[in-house]
């Protein structure tokens, strides 16, 4: 697909981060877009921004949808095609995602399954819902967002990441399984799987909001103690007071976005350029490329972390 002009794209998780940037860049290239998000204000803001940048006559519509709920997904699909007056869709970006559910031991079942529901079932349900419309296009692409945690199931030593990683492994496997399925049944539709590293998005804040968790400044003392080991690994003093831990938690939430090696806009550009080039496996970021190479070279040792003097050495540093 050399050009997105004149196409109709659907983007989930379009209220912020990579989803918003995909909407903005697609619209600026003359692609009509139907975007959805669970946060109404944010997705309307995306629609307004994209509409102001799009060529005359290119429409961008905003829809509220929890992608883990099939009833809402089907409603979004019907609203999207009605709003754009189309009988087909050319691009589906299954981008919506949250974190959470790090451990089977310390996180609730509800939190674990909520995370998995958004991150995998959202991809599956949206693909199911929009597939007949994609098949009606002369040329279409399903773009599923996995993660480096879709081939490396942790955030590092002492930091389990089980729900998110399980879901992202499932997204990667689902996407790769679709390659042959589409070749046999709809060869004009292809699939691409996006594998981002650390990207500057609001996923930490959005996860907290969707899971109903307190803001860092309002986390109670008991919960802070469960965070102490991870916060100490991140640099907090071993004997830090609860107020010091609370402050550190707030700093880390902001730092995730501020200190990312790639912005969401840069990530969106890489994704769209890769689609034009016909790629189906899209690694986003030097950290993603380094971690992929590290795990592939010696998968048996993927969880035996490189260390220097007892300190964890990031895979990118290990490559140098």
Describe the structure in your own words:
The protein has eleven helices and eleven strands. The chain has 320 residues and is α/β, with parallel strands linked by helices. It folds into two domains: 8-201 and 263-293, NAD(P)-binding Rossmann-like Domain (Rossmann fold, 3-Layer(aba) Sandwich), CATH 3.40.50; 214-259. The chain has a seven-stranded parallel β-sheet with strand order 3-2-1-4-5-6-9, sandwiched between helices. Strands 7-8 form a two-stranded parallel ribbon. α3 (70-84) packs parallel to α4 (109-135) and α4 runs parallel beside α5. The radius of gyration is 20 Å and the shape is globular.
Cα shape: globular
**What's the domain count?**
2
User: Number of helical segments?
Assistant: 11
Give the CATH topology of the largest domain: Rossmann fold
Coarse structural class: alpha/beta
Strand content: 5-15%
Overall average pLDDT: 88
Oligomeric composition of the shown chains: single chain
Q: What is the name of the CATH superfamily of the largest domain?
A: NAD(P)-binding Rossmann-like Domain
């Amino acid at each position: 697909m050399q050009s997105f002009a004149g196409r109709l794209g659907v983007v989930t998780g379009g209220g912020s981060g990579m989803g918003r940037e995909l909407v903005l860049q697609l619209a600026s290239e003359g692609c009509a877009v139907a975007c959805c998000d669970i946060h109404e204000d944010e997705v309307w803001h995306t629609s307004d921004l994209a509409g102001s940048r799009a060529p005359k006559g290119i429409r961008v519509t905003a829809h509220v949808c929890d992608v883990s709920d099939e009833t809402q997904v089907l409603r979004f699909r019907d609203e999207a095609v009605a709003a754009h007056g189309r009988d087909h869709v050319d691009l589906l970006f299954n981008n919506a995602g949250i974190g959470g559910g790090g451990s089977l031991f310390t996180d609730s079942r509800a939190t674990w399954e909520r995370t998995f529901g958004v991150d995998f079932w959202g991809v599956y349900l949206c693909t199911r819902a929009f597939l007949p419309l994609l098949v009606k296009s002369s040329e279409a692409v399903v773009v599923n967002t996995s993660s480096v945690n879709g081939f490396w199931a942790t955030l590092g030593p002492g930091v389990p990441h089980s729900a998110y990683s399980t879901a992202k492994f499932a997204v990667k496997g689902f996407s790769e399984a679709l390659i042959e399925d589409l070749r046999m049944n709809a060869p004009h539709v292809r699939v691409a799987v996006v594998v981002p590293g650390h990207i500057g998005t609001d996923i930490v804040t959005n996860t907290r909001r969707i899971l109903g968790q307190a803001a860092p400044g309002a986390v109670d003392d008991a919960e802070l103690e469960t965070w102490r080991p991870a916060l100490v690994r991140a640099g907090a003093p071993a004997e830090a007071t609860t107020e010091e831990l609370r402050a550190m938690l707030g700093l880390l939430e902001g730092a995730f976005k501020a200190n990312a090696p790639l912005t969401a806009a840069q990530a969106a550009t890489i994704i769209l350029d890769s689609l034009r080039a016909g790629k189906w496996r899209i690694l986003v970021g030097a950290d993603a490329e380094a971690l992929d190479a590290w795990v592939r070279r010696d998968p048996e040792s993927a969880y035996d972390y490189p260390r220097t003097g007892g300190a964890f050495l990031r895979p990118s540093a290990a490559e140098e």
